[in-house]
């Protein structure tokens, strides 16, 4: 399933269509449009670890969450290390070394940073629990998505088949060329050999979608982004395509209460 809501021509964000049926859920993925950053970071760079001016990043973050009507003091983020550590978030804030965040608290808006790696957002509408996952190739081979679904089950009683999920915009298979040292970690279903170069192409979207299915989610409850950070580089930042000098996007999910 690949659908997106109707948005203006150069939106600050795109809202996954799979979540639009839930009016009290805020879920979105930023683009590179609508910010104040310049040059390689133009324009909505949301990455604080870049060499962009901090005041520009701060303004961009304000604009993004303002567009979603989310107060900044309700955002929870973590410095990501391409691992498989999962944090149960009980209060908003800035955390360290976690690549997946889960919460059952309303008005705590989870966010992960991306610029080629795969963001995955999950919503359990029965127990009102959400997850935001950052899955690069290392996190993918460590099965961070399946581990996060297991964490939702343990912490909130989540039944996977009741969940909805979005596999977000990342580097697509045709652009993610790797050597044997990376390819060897992936099953054959997720890698394609290039006999001319001796390299491989890895499909992160498919690998993470399948992890959701293996964890128990229904295929019809999963949306996969139609976009690519490389092929659609005019709309998204790509660390690889732009040789490391570029901005970052955010993928975010959270439940709101009626006082927002």
TrEMBL record:
Pfam families the UniProt entry points to: Cu-oxidase_4
Gene3D superfamilies from the UniProt entry: CNF1/YfiH-like putative cysteine hydrolases (3.60.140.10)
Keyword terms of this UniProt record: Hydrolase, Metal-binding, Transferase, Zinc
Alphabetized InterPro entries for the sequence: Cu_polyphenol_OxRdtase (IPR003730), Cu_polyphenol_OxRdtase_sf (IPR038371), Cytotoxic_necrot_fac-like_cat (IPR011324)
Molecular function via GO: copper ion binding; hydrolase activity; S-methyl-5-thioadenosine phosphorylase activity
Keyword Transferase: yes
Cell membrane keyword on record: no
Catalyzed reaction equations: inosine + phosphate = alpha-D-ribose 1-phosphate + hypoxanthine; adenosine + phosphate = alpha-D-ribose 1-phosphate + adenine; S-methyl-5'-thioadenosine + phosphate = 5-(methylsulfanyl)-alpha-D-ribose 1-phosphate + adenine; adenosine + H2O + H(+) = inosine + NH4(+)
Annotated family: Belongs to the purine nucleoside phosphorylase YfiH/LACC1 family.
Record's protein name: Purine nucleoside phosphorylase
Organism: Dyadobacter flavalbus
Gene name for this UniProt entry: pgeF
């Amino acid at each position: 399933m690949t659908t997106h809501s109707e948005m203006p021509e150069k939106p600050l964000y795109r809202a996954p269509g799979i979540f639009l049926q839930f009016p009290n859920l805020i879920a979105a993925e930023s683009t590179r449009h609508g910010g104040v950053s310049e040059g390689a970071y133009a324009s909505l760079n949301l990455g604080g670890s870049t060499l962009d001016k901090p005041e520009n990043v701060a303004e961009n973050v304000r604009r993004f969450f303002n567009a979603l009507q989310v107060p900044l003091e309700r955002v929870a983020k973590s410095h990501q290390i391409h691992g498989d550590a999962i944090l149960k978030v009980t209060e908003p804030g800035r955390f360290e070394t976690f690549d997946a965040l889960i919460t059952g608290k309303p008005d705590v808006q989870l966010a992960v940073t991306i610029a080629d790696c795969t963001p995955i957002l999950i919503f359990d509408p029965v127990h009102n629990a959400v997850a935001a996952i950052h899955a690069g190739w290392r996190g993918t081979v460590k099965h961070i998505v399946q581990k996060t679904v297991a964490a939702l089950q343990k912490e909130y009683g989540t039944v996977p088949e009741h969940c909805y999920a979005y596999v977000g915009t990342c580097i697509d298979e045709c652009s993610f060329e790797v050597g044997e040292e990376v390819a060897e970690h992936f099953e054959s279903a997720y890698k394609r050999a290039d006999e001319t170069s001796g390299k491989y192409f890895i499909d992160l979207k498919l690998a993470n979608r399948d992890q959701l299915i293996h964890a128990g989610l229904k295929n019809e409850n999963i949306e996969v982004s139609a976009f690519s950070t490389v092929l659609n580089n005019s709309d998204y930042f790509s660390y690889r395509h732009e040789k490391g000098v570029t901005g970052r996007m955010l993928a975010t999910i959270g439940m709101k209460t009626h006082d927002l």
